Amino acid sequence: MGFIVAMKTLDSSRAGVGAQGVGVAQGAIDECIKFAKGRIQFGQPITSFQAIQHMLADMQTQTEAARSLVYAVARMMDNGAKDFSRASAMAKLFATDTAMRVTIDAVQVMGGSGYMKEYPVEKMMRDAKILQIYEGTNQVQRNVIALDMIREANKNK
Ligand SMILES: Cc1cc2nc3c(=O)[nH]c(=O)nc-3n(C[C@H](O)[C@H](O)[C@H](O)COP(=O)(O)OP(=O)(O)OC[C@H]3O[C@@H](n4cnc5c(N)ncnc54)[C@H](O)[C@@H]3O)c2cc1C
After folding, report:
1. How far apart are CA 99 and CA 102, in angstroms?
2. How far apart are CA 87 and CA 69, in angstroms?
């Protein structure tokens, strides 16, 4: 019984780690756009460069997608769903992989300053890494998702 209780606890807590991922990603975006607006290179703010704009657009789009997955599993939990194991693993996997990608890009947008401890995004990048590891590594989330898909396919045979 202990193993089942532990697994069910992880189903709930993984959604929370997904929420941490969304928070870290959004925080990194907020910090880097604030910096980018004020950083002048070649006589203009770096936000006027399309290469920077496209990075910002991808970062925000990925973060919104992660936020939607986290809200979806939170709604399932609030509505008393019995089984949200796959949804929770998907939210944790996608939101924390997003946090990793977005924080790496936030450092890139800020250039050398992003790498320095004077700005918070280097810490956000390190924090994103542990989100991919604890509460079950993201490889394990993929196992959970795939096994649930296969279980469902076998049931519907
Ligand atoms: C800062 C921090 C805080 C933590 N807090 C907690 C906590 O509060 N409570 C708690 O219980 N634990 C906590 N942990 C432990 C954390 O949950 C584990 O580190 C994590 O589950 C990974 O286990 P491991 O370190 O033993 O890695 P391992 O299991 O040895 O994994 C090593 C690598 O092998 C891969 N791997 C392992 N098994 C498989 C598999 N079956 N299929 C595919 N790949 C696999 C992993 O994905 C990983 O890439 C914490 C860890 C850290 C660093």
Report:
1. 5
2. 8
What is 2-155's CATH topology? Answer: Butyryl-CoA Dehydrogenase, subunit A; domain 3 (1.20.140)
Nearest CA to ligand 1 atom 13: 134
Phi and psi at 23, nearest 5°, equal: -65, -45
CA distances from 131 to 107, 125, 126, 155 (A): 18, 10, 9, 33
pLDDT above 70 covers a percentage of the chain that reads 100
Judge if the beta carbon of residue 149 lies within 6 A of ligand 1: no
Nearest alpha-carbon partner for 133 in 97, 86, 108: 97
Domain ranges of the chain: 2-155
| Overall average pLDDT of the 22-26 stretch | 98
Residue nearest to atom 50 of ligand 1 (CA): 134
> Kindly report the CA angle at 141 between 136 and 144, in degrees rounded to 5?
115
Instruction: Please tell me the distance from the alpha carbon of residue 132 to that of residue 141, in angstroms, as a whole number.
Output: 10
Predicted structure pTM score: 0.94
* 135 CA → ligand 1 middle, Å: 7
